[in-house]
Hints:
Blueprint: H1 3-12, E1 17-23, E2 29-35, H2 41-46, E3 48-51, E4 65-70, E5 76-77, E6 85-93, H3 105-119, E7 124-136, E8 138-143, E9 148-153, H4 189-201, E10 206-211, E11 218-223, E12 226-227, H5 228-248, E13 252-254, E14 268-276, E15 279-280, H6 293-313, E16 335-337, E17 344-346, E18 358-360, H7 369-385, H8 403-406, H9 416-425, H10 428-431, H11 438-456, H12 461-467
Parallel strand pairs: 1-6, 16-17
Antiparallel strand pairs: 1-2, 3-4, 4-6, 5-6, 7-11, 7-12, 7-13, 7-14, 8-9, 10-11, 14-15, 14-18, 17-18
Helix pairs in contact: 3-7, 4-5, 5-7, 6-7, 6-9, 9-11
Amino acid sequence: MNFNDVKKLIADHDIKRVDLRVTDMPGRWHQFTIPVERLTEKLFDEGQGFDGSSLRGFQEIHESDMLLMPDLTSARVEPISEIGTLVLTCSVKDPITGQAYNRDPRNIAKNTVEYMKSTGIADTANFGPEMEFFLFDDVRFEQSQQTAFYYVDSIEAHWNSGRDEAPNLGYKIPGKEGYAPVAPFDTLRDVRWEMHEALHAVGIKTEVGHHEVATAGQGEIAMKYAPLVEKGDEFQWYKYIVRNVARSNGMVATFMPKPIFGDNGTGMHVHQSLWKDGKPLFFNESNYAGLSDIARYYIGGLLKHAPAVLAFAAPSTNSYKRLVPGFEAPINLVYSARNRSAVIRISTYEKTAASKRIEFRAPDPTCNPYLAFSAMLLAGLDGIQNKIEPPDPIDKNIYDLPEAESAKLAKVPASLDESLAALKEDHDFLTSNGAFNEKYIQDYIDWKQEEILGLSMRPTPYEYELYFNA
């Protein structure tokens, strides 16, 4: 897309305003709106100033002046607003040095891709996250000095089977039985399709949508894979569209990994593969699961560094309420073909070279996509460069292994605190190539440890149930 293409979009869609969007360290999207008359070629060259100190993870107040640099190729017409709006995804530039700002997550992702190319291993890293979410009809929560509670509800939840709905027709989804039912049990098919259409409107290719396993409105819309930075941009669009379409239908969407107790949580299985000169690098039909040596070494690197990677890819304390032994999320650091109890699964649906990929199943969509995808790729590249062999694949249900055998398997961290400790000890694979820098990683660890401390000091409702009358 060039500037003339953007001008045509503006004319064809009666654009009145332009949103410049940027991502902070936690992964939240922010926007700065300008009138369409200000969108000139000069803006793409010189950028739009903003206060970097007001975004989490950016600069301190004494060095707060920063520039938003719109990406011309990212121009999309906003599918939600009734006012004609053009959206441009931005990276950040330091106005003093003139360099790409090294604390901007999107720049970190771009640096990661450039490093990958410099190794000669590959020129494209494709990522395809399977993003799940819940759609609730009601949500309330509060945390104060003397009060702490949350409440969520969904008309299709099994706990409403006895509610007076005048009339209650009984079409509720039992816990853990929500995988792909038809209407009238699935009440959200049309809402998900509305999300499909909005995603298509901004150029995001989708593959399949369905109700997910949990009761209470859990769903998934799978996106087609795309190169790392582009998929990071699409990830931000995805969350934006799902939330806004839900709101327009009187519901609320959440990507929280474990919003309800006793049922499946929300994960984000991340499919990934490397390509060079338009050819896939992960396929060799003679090897186990059709994997090339490069793919196997990539798996070795990802498994080795997984505890540190999860500090970015499963970045909330709530993430580890999903990553629990014996429940729905895989925690064993092994790989396998077809086997969903391994943390890395090799899909066998298709047998072509182009379809060969690995699926990392521990992440969740609370992550910052630019940081999480970059960490995964750098771990995999380290595996390739150092020819790291993964443990032998396990082709049986790991959940059913004898305790003595299961205990020998490496596991994902049991808490965010453990993931951050792993990142503190193991991050050379992120920094030695210049993609991340030491200070950024330490600042990230410090910020996340503040979250952990805040949680550790607050009593929870369940502690009242356990200990109030002790």
